[in-house]
Predict the structure.
Amino acid sequence: MDVKPADFFIGVADLFSIFLPGALLSYLLLDVARRDIIGQILPAIASEAANWMAFILAAYLFGHFASLIGAAFLDRIYDRTFVKYKRRHGDHLYHYACAIKADALGRDDKISNTYKWARAFIRLRSAESATEIERLEADSKFFRSVSVVLPVAAIVFAAKGGWIISLAAAAMTILSFWRFVDLRWKCTQATYLFLAMLQAQSAPNPD
């Protein structure tokens, strides 16, 4: 199987959307871990290499936890606020994608939501289009996880008396959430647009 540079880029972007927020959260909780966990609940770490391995593992785990929390809560906020605002005057691409899905699946069109079905359809038809969608999706997931981690940073720095950094983290939380919803919207719209274009290409030309 051929490995394309774009596939490597998406893999790295997806990894960083998990690892970087997790690394920030691990750093914020480092003092707590050293005081209450390492040597108390878990055995003491004897070497620098073991310290780095523990940090990397913690970053990976916390990154997944942040992504899970973001998917559970921030996605709902996005659906109930930003999507409704954007669709207040209609969403032609979304309705067109729903029509394509209903025409393709018939009575079974409820087996998946429109976005997931459109993304799967595009992956089967166009690797280039799928790569662009996955890039936008990875970026949106990164900012979604950052929106979960930054409030923790605000609390940690406020507890230490660093009010300026705490306020900066709170402001960055708002900006990160704004960036998340903007990228998520662009990703879904790009998905529906690619679906419509691929469907038009596959349609028979009238004589």
Observations:
- Residues 163-202 form the longest helix (40 residues).
- The CA atoms of residues 78 and 181 lie 6 Å apart.
- The radius of gyration is 21 Å.
